Amino acid sequence: QVRVVESGGGLAQPGGSLRLSCAASGFTFSNTAMSWARQAPGKGLEWIANIGRESDTYYADSVKGRFTISRDSAKSTVYLQLDSLKPEDTAVYLCRAGRSPGYWGQGTQVTVSS
Fold first, then answer.
1. Phi and psi dihedrals of 24, rounded to 5?
2. CB 111 within 8 Å of CB 10
3. Which residues, in sequence order, are bridge partners of residue 78?
4. Residues 6+ apart with CB under 8 A from 65
5. Is residue 33 within 8 Å of 19, Cβ to Cβ?
6. Who's near 68: CB < 8 A, 6+ residues apart?
């Protein structure tokens, strides 16, 4: 049974940082591409970052240079480091295992506010 669980969200000030984690199980993590997306209040789902099996990374323009995706196959975990946070980064952040449609977690809330 595939399981994807996000954690690490919370409240951060503008300019601050957070580190999100996505723990996965039930499939061969090292062979699977992983992604992060987010959904802001009243908006649709926005893909923000992807990391391939070889740790090749891709970012949406809205987060490039501020967010960093990484993976630890020994822990079957993918991370998303959020730096230089802005109020518009406020959203529920979701992790997906595999290509579309993939397996999604329940998400973790990130709120950026002073």
1. -125, 150
2. yes
3. 22, 71
4. none
5. no
6. 57, 80, 81, 83
DSSP at 31: G
Q: Which two tokens stand for residue 8?
A: 């690490």
Instruction: Copy the structure tokens of residue 50.
Output: 């992807």
Pair of tokens at residue 33: 């591409």
20-61 confidence digits (pLDDT tens): 999 999 999 999 999 999 999 999 999 999 999 999 999 999
**Residues with Cβ within 8 Å of residue 108, at least 6 apart in sequence:** 6, 7, 8, 9, 20, 92, 93
- Please provide the average confidence, as pLDDT, over all residues in the chain: 96
Separation CA 91–CA 86 (nearest Å): 11
Per-residue pLDDT band for 100 (boundaries 50, 70, 90) equals: confident
